[in-house]
Amino acid sequence: MTSSLPHQPASSGEPRPPEDRRHKIRRRALTLLIIVLLIGVPAGYLAISANQSRNSGKDKEAKYAATGLTKGWPSKVQRRLYQVPMPHPSGKVAAYETNNWKTSRLYVQFQTPLANLDVFLNDMGVKRSDLKKGKITISARDQKITGWDFTSPGPWYGLVHKQKGPKPTQDVMVSFGNRNNPFFYVVSRTVP
Question: What is the residue-wise DSSP string for 121-146?
Answer without folding.
Answer: HHHHT--GGG-EET---S-HHHHHHH
